[in-house]
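new request in #modeling-help
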Amino acid sequence: NAGVTQTPKFRVLKTGQSMTLLCAQDMNHEYMYWYRQDPGMGLRLIHYSVGEGTTAKGEVPDGYNVSRLKKQNFLLGLESAAPSQTSVYFCASGRLADFSGETQYFGPGTRLLVL
Amino acid sequence: GENVEQHPSTLSVQEGDSAVIKCTYSDSASNYFPWYKQELGKRPQLIIDIRSNVGEKKDQRIAVTLNKTAKHFSLHITETQPEDSAVYFCAASKDFGNEKLTFGTGTRLTIIP
């Protein structure tokens, strides 16, 4: 049981390049999320999904797109990377709360540097 | 939308003493309040959570209190140990917590041996 995994772990991009971050979970969770973490700003929600085939905008969605074609995968795309997108990206997954245990599990993170 | 403020941003505590981190939230409809611990270079991990139908919850050396009227909640760590050194995040959400957790900006806790 791997939990939540993210690919890649680290990436360097040049301004204007595109890339896709992959998040996978093997816990059969309904909900999946993408956050970015910047120093002094905590975790900010980019996009999220409440089920296969559905996505919704979070707090900071501009410059990013997402897709949830399969329940276990949630992809985050950067079409034209900008230096302001340099950050650590965390994926998380969650299940319907049942008043016990965790409701969101985080992946190990992807460190992205845009030059 | 929800706004969560967290204080202090840094906290140094002598080993064995207690540490308290406070958060306030703006949306009175929020009813789920988790706390996450993030060690350096690691992922955030849930350490305790509380729902609005209770005022306090304890788990060994960790406790969380909630004041719905004042819209604030606090994390209390007693008998601190070096392994408690980390960044702690509070968060808030509505419903059962699976949509749009809003996080505080974090508290870097350092335990001084």
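bot summary: The interface with chain A takes residues 1, 6, 9, 32, 34, 42-46, 49, 51, 89, 91, 96-106 of chain B (CB under 8 Å).
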